[in-house]
Amino acid sequence: MHFPAAVFSEKGKAYGVTLPDIPGCNTAGDTLEEALANVQEAVELMLEDATEKPVPSSVEHYKDDPVYQDVAWTLVDVDMSFVDGPANGAHESDAQ
């Protein structure tokens, strides 16, 4: 699943990445590549006891949110196979 990821950075400091669709899911790295590579582990730690998969939003969903005013956006591909249940918001008829 592709989730929007907000990338925060300050000159001379590490890069921070947060996935707004997974509350509390944040990671960082000394380089952008390192920060993005850490996303999968951060998601797995946040959702280790989850029974349902979160559903990704579009980047446009967050465009007017003041928290994300000065960020760069990217999409990250997260392997959600470690979560046993269906995606949040999925309808029972969708699973048939």
Polypeptide structure, described:
The protein is α+β, with helices and mostly antiparallel strands and 96 residues long. Helices cover 15% and strands 23% of the residues. It has a single domain (2-80), classed as Double Stranded RNA Binding Domain (2-Layer Sandwich), CATH 3.30.160.250. Strands 3-2-1-4 form a four-stranded antiparallel β-sheet. The chain is globular, with a radius of gyration of 14 Å. The chain starts with a strand and ends in a 19-residue tail after the last strand.
Write a short abstract of this structure.
By secondary structure, the chain is of the alpha+beta class. The chain is built from two helices and four strands, in the order βββααβ. A hairpin with a 5-residue loop joins strand 1 and strand 2.
So what's the CATH class? Alpha Beta
Tally of individual domains: 1
Question: What structural class do helix, strand and pairing data support?
Answer: alpha+beta
Q: State the distance separating the first and last CA atoms.
A: 20 Å
Helix share, percent: 10-25%
Provide the residue-averaged pLDDT: 88
Using the CA coordinates, give the radius of gyration.
Answer: 14 Å
Which sheet architecture does the biggest sheet show? 4 strands, antiparallel
CATH architecture: 2-Layer Sandwich
Order of helices and strands: EEEHHE
**Helix count, DSSP H or I runs of 4 or more residues:** 2
User: What's the count of strands?
Assistant: 4
Shape: globular
Strand order within the widest sheet? 3-2-1-4
